[in-house]
């Protein structure tokens, strides 16, 4: 079952649909995808689902996650209502968040490298 992407994808999509159904039925203020991810995590912890059953499919999704987000983001920016409402606020938020992410990543890598050098001595 390790190489069968259809089965692995079906398991992940099944949890997505179950999570969406639960959030709609019980009016839980969470996106259905998040609820599905929580359920999948709990089933993995409990041992009802083995990691091998979904590992290839989910690792492929994680590798290509940024590609999956590009079309919705581009569509959002070309929406005239969105740009007219936020105007310069949007660009300021994007600039500040990009700088914070860049600095956070740089600090994390620097700390990792320092710890790695200490352990190798």
From TrEMBL:
Record bears the keyword Nuclease: no
Pfam families reported in the protein's UniProt record: LrgA (PF03788)
Location, primary (coarse class): membrane
Domain of life: Bacteria
Cellular component, GO annotation: plasma membrane
Topology class, membrane: Multi-pass membrane protein
TM stretches of this protein: 7-28, 34-53, 65-84, 90-112
Location relative to the cell: Cell membrane
Record flagged with keyword Iron: no
Keywords carried by this UniProt record: Cell membrane, Membrane, Transmembrane, Transmembrane helix
Protein's UniProt name: Holin-like protein
Organism of this sequence: Salinibacillus kushneri
